[in-house]
Amino acid sequence: MTPQEYDTMLRNLIFDPDGDDDLSHRKIIKGHTTGLFNLNAVKYQWAKSMYQVMIGNFWVPEKVSGLKDDARDFSTTLTPDEQRAYK
């Protein structure tokens, strides 16, 4: 590249209306997609199914009910030795 080319930033369109979103033409590198992120049409259906199973197996404490009861029971009903076993 010449020094003048370093001074000029090439524009990369965020949305390309002439892009091709067909699954058979979709590429990660050097693809020519529209730039829209479509999760409904996937190339590998088995991967989408596996992803949904993996998300179902993942939990976050905020979404699990009853953790407040566990915290209260930890400090009120367990002996110090039992509490140490959980720490």
Describe the fold and architecture.
With 87 residues, the protein is mainly alpha-helical. The chain has one domain. 40% of the residues lie in helices and 0% in strands. It has helices at residues 3-7, 45-57, 67-76, 80-86. The chain is elongated. 0% of the residues are buried. The mean pLDDT is 79.
Descriptors for this entry?
single chain; 87 residues; mainly alpha; 4 helices; 0% strand; elongated
Distance between the termini: 59 Å
**Segments where pLDDT lies below 50 for 5+ residues?**
none
Q: List SSEs in N-to-C order.
A: HHHH
Radius of gyration (CA) equals 26 Å
- The helix fraction, in percent, is 40-55%
Number of helices: 4
Helix/strand structural class: mainly alpha
Task: Note the main sheet.
Answer: none
- pLDDT averaged residue by residue: 79
Summed up, the domain count is 1
Short description:
The chain is an all-alpha fold and 87 residues long. Helix content is 40%, strand content 0%.
Write the layout of secondary structure elements.
Layout lengths: L2 H5 L37 H13 L9 H10 L3 H7 L1
